[in-house]
Amino acid sequence: MSYFSRLRAANIPWLYHFTVLSCSPFLLHISGIRTCLLLYMILTIALDAEEVLKAFQDPSEPPLIPHPYLPFLGHVIGMFWHGAKYFDIVNRKTQYPIFTLQTLNARTIGVISPQLAAPIQRASKSTSFYGMILEVTKRLVDFDEPSMKIIRWNLDDELGHHEGLMNESHDMVASVLSPGPILNQISSTQLEKFAELLNTMAPGSNLLSISLMDFVKRVFTIANAFTIYGPQNPFAMHPELVQKFWDYEAGMIKVMADIVPSITARKPWLARKAINAALQEFIEKEHYRSASPLIQKRVAINLKHGLTTQMAGHAELILLFGIIGNAVPTTFWFLANVYSNPDLLEQIRKETSQAVLCSRNSDKSRKEKVINVTKLKTMCPLLVSTYRETLRLIGNLASVRLVTNTHYISAPGHPSYLLKKGSMIQIAAGVIHTSESVWGADAKTFNPTRFISSTTSSEQFSSETDAGVTAEKTATQLPKNVPSAAYRAFGGGSVICPGRHFAQSEILGFVALCVNMFDVTDGNGGVIDLPEKDDGRIPLSVMKPVKEPQVVIKRREGEEDVIWRLEL
Ligand code: HEM
């Protein structure tokens, strides 16, 4: 199709333009014609520009969807207004597997098809994750320009080798958090810390009245800080920072907007200042020397490449967010899904009892129960499947990539698509996770058995530990016929979340411990209501609830004096 035919076919009111142009000389004076034509030109450019861009687009590019009322700005406002839901809104109208949105002077490519997501996340040589997130990170943690220069150096191997701070740090994090002895050691410390904290939270017949989210926040922040950052971590040295971290987390978008944040985002901005100061102290006083290998190596890399102690401290803020920012809301939803459904709770209690070992403590005065997390992964398919299903329905964080080299992608059943250098890609996890064509007619509903396979030979979900024990039913990575790129809770490709193995152990262990230790009810002793998901925010992590439920937590009857432990 020639450019001319494409222009003719575009959604442009040619008759209106022709009428205005041909009638204005007869209706207006010379000076009036000039003003009129000027106004007309501005209006035309403004209103039809995206249609013209669409007509001149390379036919192999993902089709451009012009905004119906407000070119250049309309889609940007839509994304801010509707958050991750915006791709769903656009997709419902167009049903394209991949499309382009003009966002100011840039192009955002929305990917709705998991078949096309697969080659995109594989093309790590022509796309960049860091190219998209570094500017956001700079604003989030308050990096200065000299640090950004160090961080940006050879970011995507553009100098032909794999050196540089980000490359070294990425490879180190991926290696330390991969299945193996270091990860096992970190996970074991974390599980022991969870048990130590929970044993003291609602002891004996005491009742703990608390917001369910605050309960998870408190335990996860203290335990993760201890496990990853060591006994002299900033939260142990300054306990008031636990609340401040979450004050910051709640206002990250406002801080990131960076419009006089000391006024427009005062609470999160002040909270960040306090945490950053404590992180700087953590580096300057060398408290990281007693932290996990992950932090010891990370700080060493950052200092070696020339970050100041202050900036090396700031750098930890983004990792802290990576460690607890997703794990906390995920655990909240996992608990909410289980405690709001008495049948599921009963089944999970029964199933996890297989992984509980009973004994007596050293002086034989109290009963001790130990939950083995390796057994949870291999013998408790319902627990594992509920975890994965929980993540499927709350994981709407788009995988973002910047196209660094113009290239084609292809996938079975689709034409080849041209992705041009400079375009920003967003693989729309939220849309893919709830697509009926991918997950079946019940795609939008919670089905805790979705990831259970009835065959004994199916792929085991547990990858990091010895999966010697097989159950009759096993939790599978994916239900039959669902392509692997359709499960996007942890992203995909070379930057797939390196913390996913750690997250799985800590979350399965924590939830199994809670269901075995506690009854969790609403204020009147009844079953808690499942809160509504807030899917209208710009997501930086998995979805949050619209309202955080208040709950009452107490030890299960007959179990009041048991000492609980978790082991890997
Ligand atoms: C349920 C919990 C978690 C979820 C849902 C989650 C999700 C994600 C997602 C979606 C990404 C982006 C990947 C992409 O765009 O392809 C990511 C990256 C990352 N996550 Fe996680 N995450 C979780 C827990 C953790 C934990 C516990 C850690 C650390 C111990 C961690 C460390 C990281 C890091 C360092 C990255 C950046 C990867 C890179 O630079 O290559 N995450 N995570």
From TrEMBL:
Heme binds at residue 497. One of its GO terms (molecular function) is monooxygenase activity. It comes from the Eukaryota. Keywords: Heme, Iron, Metal-binding. The keyword Iron applies. Coiled coil: none annotated. Its cofactor is heme. InterPro entries: CYP450_monoxygenase_sec-met, Cyt_P450, Cyt_P450_E_grp-IV, Cyt_P450_sf. Belongs to the cytochrome P450 family. This is Cytochrome P450. It comes from Melanomma pulvis-pyrius CBS 109.77.
